[in-house]
DNA sequence: CTAGCCTTGACG
DNA sequence: CGTCAAGGCTAG
């Protein structure tokens, strides 16, 4: 890893951040290298336990010790693992994200407990203790994940908890917050300071990002006053609380940040998407259900009828499943889904192998390795040739940052019509393009944005949106969002000059075609354009940079951001105003705006070659507004038609460039996708959950009544993840026996020895399961599926879902997988722990996500697609499931086409990653089973953490 | 990190 | 040689 050590890259491309997608060489290389190297390592199941064991035992550098070190109970959570920063190989600091144990931990735990006790209904302390004991006990343990709930109460947890949690979910904001505050956000984007190499290597740079941010957010240097500076990450800005909370103990080494604190939004590649609204989730702990857990009670967000039906169905389904399947998971899932209650003996789900799962796994296993992923990220961007369409339209590409708020915006109904596909037209331009075809600039007035000629809203339909300030100052070129308008396009050549009229002014031809309000063609001169305000910040335009006319500062900012692969996260969830005065405050939003306004990543030269003409292809597709496939309304289409792009062969395409965020979103994001996104917050795992989970687990286990009790069959997803792996594989695969046997083994082995471990498992499993089920039940497409099938689907996909979530979250930290809050693991560390196979695949998968610049919308859509995989023979209504999946696929396709016209193959590429995910999952499960067998607690815990959901 | 200014180099 | 966009340098 050359310069960038894997970890170090941290700042790197976050999922959200653009940089992530950036073709960046180094990062990729490093990662690639790593992966490749690793690849050599046996992917197969057998992980060398020995290694791990030793390593684990030794806290060695990597120390991932978890629980033990910390409080046992709490273990998982915060405390655990901290690995001091370790400088990685390369000289650079790599930051491995180390996790420090927060001093607070104890607090947390205690707190958690307290909450738990107090908060929860009936749960008594005694219970807790019991459960704890239980966990500790060999018996209970294994199951823990699942078991967690097991106690009589346990059930409650599972289902009850969920139910209880239900919508309402009792959140304790406060608690949460408090907890959150304690959390270490180091990871969050702090940009490591980087020194700049004289040479200006990018490599080194990554490191550099951050310091400023430090906690406060270095990003905005200046701003501090106005706002405390916040660390940025693509994910979003941290809330104030978070900010305050962040205590970062950084280790010197780490400069990078992990995004942990940020909730997630996981990464989205695009800055836009990145900003996922951060919601803290309700703590289910607080929910009575949890403690007590009668699953009966809990109500997921469902109507009563639904609930009733579900319950009925569930029971039936569950029973069926039980009969048919023997995996633990199903039961648990079933319970969760349906509230099915079974009091079965508790076994640890985790331990139990699930056969069913295997089936898929097998299939999946066959899937080609992700290795390909390694290839370059470059490919996409770097070579123009590859993507003819490469150019990102400002409009389209620009993903307008979608502020969290945006979610609330009214949605358009989008037509799913595929027609949209056709919309994207692209040219590929060569760097030297002579062809510079026409570009359309809307000249209109030089006047300030408000005055922009374009003012007419281009989109009649645009809903009222509240725009966020972000609106540009509206240079004629770039219409203010509010004004929505047309923009100029250039067609092909990146070289502005080409576009210019003889005068040297950009040709406005298109405008007319496009009906842009802007001034008549020819009227404005380039100079005029230059005189207009920078569409990003409103400053004076200095020229045509990276695809748009912008000021020198934004040009430089964009360059630095891309070259250095910065991952900025808006702590506020996006939507920060970007003006001359505020542009320094939130680089995340500024970068988003750069993209939104049309700056092209492709314009940044990987090789940093100076001079000459740009080779990047400028492809302009029809304006999304008009044509966006996804959501366009007919009207819009019509409009588009007017603007009709140049004839297919023609080189010139004109499109409206500017889209307000709002309109953008509406146009590009299919309703279904938006609906899916709206429930995404249910997925995220937050600290509170964790903590609470811990408590719960402990409490519940011992008794375990039933809940989870699965006849040993069920495993919580988490567990299953672990175990499941084995199961699916068949590695372990014992069906029936497994659960018991496993449990036994566990109990005997490590589990007994590591109460913490067990409790952790319980916590994780419970929480994740809870979250996942809750999420599933809220999914638009999932609700209509019968309970039986819901259970089946969840059983078959939970592992993929968890891993996907983890990998997506890790997009911003090349070379490392973000395990949990602040914690991350590098391949090297994984090797020491004997987890190389799994981590390697995860890194590879993550690299692919980064390369593809998977954004939040794509991520959520893919999760649904994965969830709705109907390739199982166990489905009762496969057609229905298939139909649902098809809808999700359609929505994703529409979105990718509309949002990333320059990446026409993105949809297909995204789907091609699913097999990799499945393989990765298989590897993870195998590892888990192996670890479990060997009893390596720490490694096992680590895996659990890996599988854990987002925070 | 920011942003203004400088250098580079393909084109015309 | 001028233009112009991309990268580099560096004071702040």
TrEMBL record:
Residues 16-69, 394-421, 434-457, 470-501, 698-707, 730-751 have a biased composition (Low complexity). PROSITE patterns: NR_LBD, NUCLEAR_REC_DBD_1, NUCLEAR_REC_DBD_2. Pfam families: Hormone_recep, zf-C4. One of its GO terms (cellular component) is nucleus. Its main location: nucleus. The keyword Electron transport does not apply. Residues 379-388, 715-729 have a biased composition (Polar residues). Residues 353-363, 458-469 have a biased composition (Basic residues). Residues 716-950 form the NR LBD domain. The keyword Zinc applies. InterPro entries: NHR-like_dom_sf, NR5-like, Nucl_hrmn_rcpt_lig-bd, Nuclear_hrmn_rcpt, Znf_hrmn_rcpt, Znf_NHR/GATA. Residues 1-69, 192-246, 343-421, 434-525, 694-751 are annotated as: Disordered. It is found in: Nucleus. One of its GO terms (molecular function) is sequence-specific DNA binding. Residues 531-606 form the Nuclear receptor domain. Keywords: DNA-binding, Metal-binding, Nucleus, Receptor, Transcription, Transcription regulation, Zinc, Zinc-finger. This is Nuclear hormone receptor FTZ-F1 beta. It comes from Mycetomoellerius zeteki.
